[in-house]
Amino acid sequence: MSKAASSNPNNGPSFQAPRHRPRWVTASICAVAAVLLGVAFIDYRPEQVPLITTNPTDHNAVGLFGAYVTFYLLYWFGVGAWLVPAFLGWMTYVALRNVRQLVATRGVAVLLCLLAGAGLADMVGGFTGNYFPKDLGGSVGHWIYNGFLAELMGGFGSALLLGIIY
Questions:
Q1: 103, CA 20 to 30 Å: which among 96, 112, 133, 138?
Q2: Model pLDDT for residues 5-40, shown as the tens digit of each residue
């Protein structure tokens, strides 16, 4: 009888990589926040916020919390605020499926994407209305483009830089 080439009865590698367990708490928090913010954004109208009108005539489906959070996100990030529920949904998926990839750098990348999107939206400009309290880019986009990049790099250089970051 011939001798076996290896004493390992397994056909795979001699060690198994550690299996990371899903982060259920993180996934649950992100999922609830994504759903609440998504519904709040869909149901938002400026008449819901007491900051715009002294007598709110409409109610948000998520209540005052949804109206205020939506108002402030639109005030800070403009049209880019619509990405926040999508990013929270993505973080839910990552917390359940790709647990090793849920690190601080992903959060920094999301923040950079929001900032670059606000700057790009502010470059469009010229939008007047109550839905976006501080134009399409919000106050952050206004600071990034008009307060910093417009004079430093001009329109083309700013669009190129913000587009690459985005």
A1: 138
A2: 666 666 666 667 667 778 889 899 999 999 999 999
Q: How many helices (H) and strands (E) does the chain have?
A: 6, 0
From the centroid of its chain, how far is CA 24? 20
pTM: 0.79
106-125 core/surface letters (b: 16 or more CB in 10 A; e: else): eeeebeeebbbbbbbbbbee
Burial group, residue 49, by CB count within 10 angstroms (0-12, 13-18, 19+): buried
| Cβ neighbours around 1 below 10 Å, total | 3
